[in-house]
Amino acid sequence: MTTANAMIPPPPAWYREPLSIGTLRLASRFNLAPLAGYTNLPYRLSVREVGGVGLCTTDLVNARAILLGIKKTMELLATAPGDRPLAVQIFGANPDEMAGAARWLVERKLAESIDINMGCPVRKVVKTGGGSSLLCDTTGGTINLVRKVVEAVPVPVTVKMRLGWDDENLSAPFFAREFEKAGVAAVTVHGRTREQGFGGGVNHDGIRRVVEAVESIPVYGNGDVRGIADAARMIEETGCHGIAIGRGALANPWVFRQLASWVATGDPGPRGTYHERLGFMRLHLRRLVEWKGDEKYGCIQFRKVATWYTRALRLPKRVQQALVVLVNLRQFDDLIAPFADAGPPQEWSEWDTHSAPVAVPAGPISHW
Ligand SMILES: Cc1cc2nc3c(=O)[nH]c(=O)nc-3n(C[C@H](O)[C@H](O)[C@H](O)COP(=O)(O)O)c2cc1C
Predict the structure, then answer these.
(1) What is the CATH number of the domain that holds 36?
(2) CB 31 within 8 A of CB 24
(3) 109-120 confidence digits (pLDDT tens)
(4) Which residue minimizes the CA distance to atom 14 of ligand 1?
(5) Which residue among 57, 211, 224, 255 is buried most deeply as judged by most CB within 10 Å?
(6) Residue 240: which domain range?
(7) Is the CB of 119 under 6 A from ligand 1?
């Protein structure tokens, strides 16, 4: 037991048992939460290789755009044999379009599970009646939409939602139970309201009310879990059956492996050695290039994540400045090779999960 984390007692023994979402049996209770613009195929493949992840979900995808075959949308649906099990998250407000998109995805074997977005706060999504605005219709429209999607596909359908629109309208417990009756196989609850955006604290009490409202489906707690201590608190205070982690996984792709190890043995183990982190960074870049099908475009995609790596690895500022204007893989290798040869700087520690000094996005880019 080498870390401060090792002092945190693991959750109850039932956390060691695999979790099933309908017919889908998951090896771990820790899922990757969707982060539009980040949790694409290259990142998912890389994080899965580290280990410990249950289910991964795509970025939110517009149901109508799926049915229209929009090229950019098809890119978001890119997957691979190693990218399993996978949920595709769809958003929209029209029940027929949502059901049609779900059917289209399942017929093409692009998803083992369909997730319905009811959390997105951005105006572009909300003004169409989709995302978190679905949490406002408690009179039947939202439940009808969910039922249509469930009836359209033979795979598990899940919902990712917020606690409600604002503090006066905490509709998540009501909806979770209604969705369960409509055949939904699990819900994930981000413990904030739409009004909160990504600010303020996560309301564990609110998540607990959802756990208490459902009869037997799993409830995943979500929000601000960055390491073992946060996960322990989420489980203890909400009784959730599993946890979805978004930004914490960007800052530390080892978080799932650590959580799985903590649940199994009480010891989370390291958050990746220095060389493993360098390897992860290179693989992520290489996969972005493959995904985009173009070296320069892949490098441009990498620029927005380069700073996490340079911070986590404590690489000098000049390396960070070079990576944010990166144009090819050769340039990357020339920049990084001396650090791989030299090994970690003296103050660098692979054990400290609490202080991963990595800036992550506060929320989706569009304002709301
Ligand atoms: C940049 C960014 C993009 C996001 N995109 C999505 C999305 O496409 N679908 C979704 O359901 N939630 C999305 N979310 C919300 C996250 O899945 C998650 O609920 C939220 O970030 C809280 O969890 P975390 O603290 O573990 O990140 C996004 C969040 C961020 C920061």
Answers:
(1) 3.20.20.70
(2) no
(3) 999 999 999 998
(4) 35
(5) 255
(6) 5-265
(7) yes
